[in-house]
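Cross-check.
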Amino acid sequence: MNYQVPKTKIEAQERLKKLRKTIEHHRYLYHVQNISEISPEALDALKHELVLIEEVYPDLVTLDSPSQRVAGEPLKGFKKIKHTVPQWSFNDAFSPDEMRGFDTRVKNMLAKEYGRKITPSYVCELKIDGLKVVLMYENGLLVTAATRGDGTVGEDVTANVKMIESVPLSLHQKVSGVFEGEVWMAKSTLVRLNKEEAKASREPFANPRNLAAGTIRQLDSSVVKARALDTFIYDVSAFDREIPKTQTKELALLQDLGFKVNKHFKECKTIDEVISFWEKWQKRKDKEDYWIDGVVVKVNEKEYQDKLGYTGKAPRFGIAFKFPAEQVTTVIEDIVLQVGRTGVVTPVAHLRPVSVSGSVVSRATLHNEDEIARLDVRIGDTVILQKAGDVIPDIVQVVKEMRNGKEKKFEFPKIVLDTDGTTSAIERIPRQAAYRCVNKNMFAQKRRKFYYFVSKKGFNIDGCGPKVIDALLDAELISNFDDLFTLTIGDVLSLPRFAELSAKNFIEAINNARTATLGKFLTALSIPHVGEETAHDIAQTFGSIEKIHEASFEDFNNVYGVGEVVAQSLADWFADEHHSALLDRLLAQVKIVNPQRKASKGKLAGKTFVLTGTLTTLGRDEAKEKVRALGGEIAESVSSKTSYVVAGENPGSKYDKAKSLGVPVLDEKAFLKMLK
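Predicted model, tokenized:
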């Protein structure tokens, strides 16, 4: 690109004025309003011309020139800045009851101040999980930017903050003041940076919050520019004019001055409205491109804020209403072995009960012997328990500093106790980390197989949960799967808590479940290594239970996605004479619906989908069938080969893995549009 630099200083001054105004206009549209009127390349061209003119006329460079966002020489260290306004932190609340307590305290204090009942309104703002920044402007120009520090003294990060495009170097009005906000990094930016780290064979960054905090303290501002940080500004803490009378008007002022303000705020008349807003964003938080860890609630009226004032460390007029913790600490009180439906023995930690992500947890799986060794987890240890979305709570770390010497190492025993009082030897499965029972007919294993058989993944018998199965087994009314379909009302009436009507309804539920798809039928049988998706693939490939029964190891091994271990398991299961007899008895009681021919040329042919979270307009099974009807595939885990991840409400770790791998994520609306 060749630019003709103005020949006179007056012409240059006029051109620079136009360039700065135009560049600032488009910066504000793109980085604050998320609007593009010109291409990024065109904007870069305008910036390039501005820099060329300023190089010829350096005395025309201004503090708010876009050229001042160009990184300079690396700093040797950060200077300290004493805040002109003390930087407070909010107290936390974690439950609706605590918020109602906050509401009561606010109203009682205001009533005492005014001598009458006062009903304030509240403003809810999303609590962005980043780091606080304090911006000082004089006559509309950015003078300093500082971290919070200890609340009295912070670090001067002005050079780095100038690299953040959403921070205006000059305000839309020539005012002076101190403005507070949050610096954050987009989840999508973290994905991009981790791809670069992977190419360079470096360890990936853990999360956007930590990376944002580390980035703002980089001595080389060019690193900050490359990492594309962002901001939301939420408070006017000092101003050379009258501060607006409400928090909502203050947010409007910040927008008018040119700051980027998070649009998801709401004025609430009652504390119940506040709680509803908090509940809504618990479900929606993962859909945004930034981390949200709660809702900041402030009294809306500035007059009331001033009356309420501050404690020694926090404002009385505001509180951080945190989302239920996804990581908590607790103590392992015992480790016991649990026999699964396939005979695999799993170590389970019995925990001191603790609330995580809104539910009380007292047990967590330790998976296998190798995982226990990796964590070096012991009975009596204080551990970190984590839960994300719909994922089962998991022990992720031992807090070894909390050990007192009384902790006990766990050694895998050689036998396991069955639920009927008998024992079975256990053995480690060759080339695997898991143990299994030598006795393949353990009562505990039988119970879990029945639980699975009647569950939604199997025959989906309404009202037939684990307690009912336990009662039927203990009364010796069932021994094999087919026995369920021979039960009578009289049999059920002999069980505790069953009356004539409930017994009749139960038998009716069994009769309603006598029809199952071939995939569901295979899933319900608890064949080792055969999960829901593998069962579906087998059903699609062979088309009938008769052909599956006749198939050999080689036939199973030729199915796409089925490896040798699964193929051998299928071949062994169907070759067993006891299983053959069970199939015959079952087929005399139930009807199997064979799959329709797969749509090889459907609009989703060649596409693989993974579902996570809760879909509000259709059930997960229905969603899977719609994808398959259009030629698509369903997978249970996310990989680089996944075409799309469909994220409903409260998505789990699959959503995060999709983001880290760069796999496209569809919300429910986009997914339904694709299905049409």
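Residues 12 and 593 are 80 Å apart (CA to CA). The chain has a mean pLDDT of 86. Passed to J.P. for a second look.
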